[in-house]
Amino acid sequence: MGPLEARAEGRAIPLGAPRQRLLLAALLLAAPRPLQRERLIDEVWGATPPASAGHAVEVYVSRLRAALGPTAIVGGPGASYATAQAADAHRFERLVSGEPGEGELAEGLALWRGEILSDVRIEGSLGAEVARLEELRVGARELLADRRLRRGGHEEALPDLRELVASEPLRERARALLMLALYRAGRQTEALDCFRAGRELLVGELGIEPAAELRELQEGILRQDPALADPSSRRRRNLPAPPTPLVGREREVEELASLLRDPARLLTLTGPGGIGKTRLALAAAEALLDDFPDGAHFVDLAPLRDPAAVVPAIAHAVGVDAEAALVPQLSEHRSLLLLDNFEQVLDAAPAVGALLAGAPGVRVLATSRVRLDLYGEHEFAVDPLDQDGGVELFGARARARDRRFVATAAVADVVARVERLPLAIELVASRVDRMSAEEMAAGLPVLDLASGGPRDVPDRHRALRAAIDWSLDLLDEDERQRFAALGAFAGGLDAEAAEAVLGATPADLDRLAGQSLLRRLPERWAMLEVLRERAVELLDPAAPVWELHATHYLKLAERAEPGLKGPEQAVWGERIEREHDNLRAALDRAEPLVALRIAAALGFFWYTHGYSAEGALQLERTLAAAPQAPALLRGRALQPLGILRSQRGDERAEATFGEALAMFRAAGDETRIGVALNSLAAMARERGDTAAARAAFEEAIELYRALDDRQRLADPLSNLGVVAVDQGELEEAAALFEESAALDRAFDNQWGLAQTFNGQAALALARGEAEAATALLAEAVEVQRRLDDRPSLMRSLEQLAATAAVRGDDALAARLWGAATAQREQAGEPRSEAEAAAIDRHLDASRSALGEDRFATAAGAGGALELGAALEQALAGADPPSGRDQQGTTSGRRTR
């Protein structure tokens, strides 16, 4: 792919005269198919060959054999010839065929040295083969650019896309990719110019308009369609999408962005509730996304009251489960943390200072009614909108309510009466379908605020309170009571909760949303924190709604507990995630026994969804608050506490399981006795005592068989299979895994089935079946991804590292080991002795093959991978087995 060259052991081989080179080129293009001598004559001499052409072909073949080796060109039936020489074109085609990865595409394209056979005159029918390869090259360049854009590499993709569009100006796919790369690089004008230039060429040369894809892309760029944003940025951030455009704050957004770029590492937006701090902070964060390659993370502190919960909340938003791992994880990052409503948890401010000290690339943008009072803090006092901005906001919200609305002079009076506070303006503007601006101005109270400056917080607060209370006065009595009762909810509510707690219908809530007192979201409603505060003030602390709220969320948690282990695991996981703030609120306010029941029911959710630190704290707190709880309830809380402690490497885990077992024995609950035995057996195996583990698993199995509890029987069966692999009892292990998998399928227990796949993969490795192990792990990963089960995905990744080592793919094994190690550090889940021994016996071979330095380099590269990217690499394909000794690497802990 370039001038025709032949090399052997790094040296060039002379290929002779032009026609001889042309004959070799023809054979290479046709390979491995043979070409008849007559066809070769046509390719070399065209329509007028000399009489000696047949003899000349034989001479050329002989000379090429002498140069390249006697088997370089072989004769075939009917005076035909073929070559099996390795050509770059063949390697290129293999690399870019099918579903190639970015690395394969880059490797294939790097083989091109210019135009294909640029020094050989190719005519005749083989010209079509040259054209096919050139088209394949262009397609590969487009696909590589697409792959880069998908992972956020728009800057990396730009140079080649510019060159490609310059050489192929009529190719619309390449132009679309260039437009997208330019747009994501912040060059919207250049992206639109690229479209205009392409359209002019298409119309001028071909007489056609651009295809629909290109036109739709241009329209999306013009309206700044969020779908065109860098997907890697979307993955790296969790900024909520505001329901309405920001009005009248352009100058402040620019000022905030400038401050956060330099010099402010901690910037606090201060001001009263309703002045627009959160909305302004979100706009500034969006404007700064390109400045923070490791993401922008929103942390809503409004539902929190305990300052100790702040660091776990930040860690979860960033994707780190262990508090201790938060600063080490962020220390190499350039990221932005948006901490909203910090006034709720001011005693947590020193923890933010410690985070900034340990992570120099991190910036914090906080919203609070008061300063955090930290060294180096920059305060940005948020003022009300100016008068023009207030009128503009009123008009925008009014037209959203009534498209026929026309502003009059009275709007300015209304805006002034509510002190130009954005939330107050939205509240009064929502009434335009019921009263005119003139009627609003007449009805709103006149506040004596003339002496207050723009930072007069108490007066601003009174202005907002007046607007809220004016809106409430326009409600009927049932609506006012319903508004107050909504103060019991944290994080919104769905229709089921509205009926159970409030006795309200969706229509009832929609009426409040119509007055801007609630926000309508897909399938639920939410209340701004400043409105919720007013609702709580109006709600009697002894009102029945508090108990109704706790009762509803207790029932939800206890319904979810079996659901999280049944056929609708993913659905229940998503629902509990949505209601987590309400469950936290119930845990804080409920009487001790109710709170302990909620915590016990949430244990498995906390384990599988990355809340091990928070879950352990909640279980410890609720157990301490209910010392006289019945034995069965204490056991139900101690069992998940043991799991969470085990996950975090807490040495108290085994004792916690022992205490849970004692509680279950005292309560006479044989089913849960088996659960605790299963967990204690898993702990024994993890510390290397396989004999004790076997005895406890067998006791649990015997108990479940006696109870005919076939659903729970699957857990110890699978775990005993892991022990059997450890002990070399492979036939026993196969039978145990088969029975466990059959039970999991019968009860549609996807989580348990995935754990059994992990065990069967270990068995496959022990049998020397590396490819079967990889296939089983692919099935496990598919389920674990669907369930968002990060702890299990981590262990699957470790098994994939061991499988790669067994196949002899040492560099991949090192990368995956590095990725798994980094994930464990982030999650605060150290390897047990058994896990470490299982993987090390395979990776030792890879360390020896690569050498410590190369192994460490590859592992370091893996440590930078996100979990999903590491799994993609692990499952992208495998080289044939190298014949290395294969022993089982066990994983999968069914300690429910």
Entry summary:
With 896 residues, the protein is mainly α. 63% of the residues lie in helices and 5% in strands.
Over the alpha carbons, how many angstroms does the gyration radius reach? 34 Å
Largest sheet: 5 strands, parallel
Supply the CATH class of the largest domain.
Mainly Alpha
Strand order of the largest sheet: 7-8-9-6-10
Number of strands: 12
Q: Hey, roughly how much beta strand do the residues contain? A: 5-15%
Bulk shape? flat
**Low-confidence parts:** 447-458, 877-887
- Report the span from N to C terminus: 59 Å
The total tally of domains equals 7
Helix content: 55-70%
**Average pLDDT for all residues:** 86
Query: What is the name of the CATH superfamily of the largest domain?
Result: Winged helix-like DNA-binding domain superfamily/Winged helix DNA-binding domain
CATH topology term of the largest domain: Arc Repressor Mutant, subunit A
Q: What's the CATH architecture of the largest domain?
A: Orthogonal Bundle
**Secondary-structure content class:** mainly alpha
Count of helical regions? 43
Search tags:
single chain; 896 residues; mainly alpha; Arc Repressor Mutant, subunit A; Rossmann fold; 12 strands
Structure description:
The structure is a single chain. The protein has 896 residues and is mainly alpha-helical. It folds into seven domains: 1-150, Arc Repressor Mutant, subunit A, CATH 1.10.10; 151-232, Serine Threonine Protein Phosphatase 5, Tetratricopeptide repeat (Alpha Horseshoe); 239-381, Rossmann fold (3-Layer(aba) Sandwich); 387-444; 477-539, Orthogonal Bundle (Arc Repressor Mutant, subunit A); 569-668, Serine Threonine Protein Phosphatase 5, Tetratricopeptide repeat, CATH 1.25.40; 735-875, Serine Threonine Protein Phosphatase 5, Tetratricopeptide repeat, CATH 1.25.40. β4 (73-76) and β5 (80-83) form a beta hairpin. α9 runs antiparallel to α10, α12 (250-261) packs across α13 and α35 packs parallel to α37. Residues 447-458 and 877-887 have low confidence and may be disordered.
